Amino acid sequence: MKSYQIGRIEGRWKNFVPPIQGGIFLKTSEQNTASAIVPGILLEDDSDSSDSSTAPSPVFDTIDTNDNHLRQRKRGELVRSSGSSSATSLSSLDRDESTEKTPLGLLDQRTKQELDFDLAKYPSLVPEVQDSIVKKYRDLEKRMKNEGLFNCNYRAYAIEGLRYAFLFTSSMLLLRASQYALSGLFLGLFWHQLVFTAHDAGHMGITHSFHGDTVIGIIIADFLGGLSIGWWKRNHNVHHIVTNSPEHDPDIEHMPFFAISHRFLSTLRSTYYERLMPYDAFAQVTLQYQQYLYYPLLMFGRFNLYRLSWEYLILGLGPRKGPAWWHRWLEIVGQAFFWTWFGYGICYKSIPTWSGRLAFIMVSHMVTMPLHVQITLSHFAMSTADLGEHESFPQKMLRTTMDVDCPEWLDFFHGGLQFQAIHHLYPRMPRHNLRRAQKLVQAFCEETEIPYALYGFIGGNKEVIGRLGDVARQARILAECQKHAAKESVFEAH
Asked: pTM for this structure?
């Protein structure tokens, strides 16, 4: 990134609100006018205004009546009025609530409650407090580097390799013995374990070389697992930047099957997928029962990953120029290799009956369901509120992410995903060092008074199911309100 540096910001940096791409460049005369409003900013194209998700919200959309250029058009706008934030908007709204002309809608009332809860629970957003948190966070990083926690433990990967070899060999031996369901079980466990190393490679946590770790990730994900590491990196990088943001984070955008925030109960626009996520008739039914659908649907999660991987590679959504131009083609070769050995060599040639093929495919894919639970566990039950541009990076990561407590001998099962809060603070730290880093992060949280969310695996699952059930109840309440409003011809407050 230093190659692209063109200057320095004096004073505090104010975060842009995503998306930070897809804008339009202004002519010199237009830039002079715009810079008087927001210096040095790339204005977003208004041509897609027809895709706006909802009408402006009194909580999220602060409007300066003196200048339409400073209007925060939608949830997730790039151009913001200087100094505005969700917290500030909420404070003024809270003061004027008794005199405001338009009452808060049901969903905005819920948003206000969540913002109030987070503002009371976490450290103040005043610059002095947040700057102090950032300084201590950077000091902690220096200490971790000095203790060697960013150095990869290659001995641990040798042990991982032995585990992978055992699981794959067991699957092939059982396949030869015509034990198709058991063979599929061990192949699914093999895939489950492989993903952890692919995750490390995607974060450059193994060799710390961009091409080196990418090739490792492609071999593991594409050649051996049939999934695109390029798609995962494109998705996951955004997730780390805007964790748990309903409009921006693709890892929590699972409409119409799951909604972890009441804000999905209105039609939001995903800035990642660049499309609306409609709260349509189908979603209105499924979301009311999502806590019961959670585990059954996750059993089919791997099939959806195939779809997303093919979409990424076929449409060429990854880099086409620059140093990574060839990654896509290596991934395509990897996909061809995977479907040759798995689809043709095993499913078609090695299993003679359709019933055996079905058993092998379904068991091997459904046994990876705990992985999807592990991936969603650390975020689904955490805050989805936007506290504004003044919140520091470490506070936001700890507010939107939980860790899972487990004995050290079970670390192989969770594969580092049980330390997601620590991982979000330091994404390139190799996972075998995360347990050692946990104590340092806990001390940092105590010093800064940032709550550190830590649950057992069962307790974490209860939190997730509770969150899904809570949003489901809100969906039912909203449906009843809409029915009543339609019956009574009263729409203003809904």
From this structure: 0.81
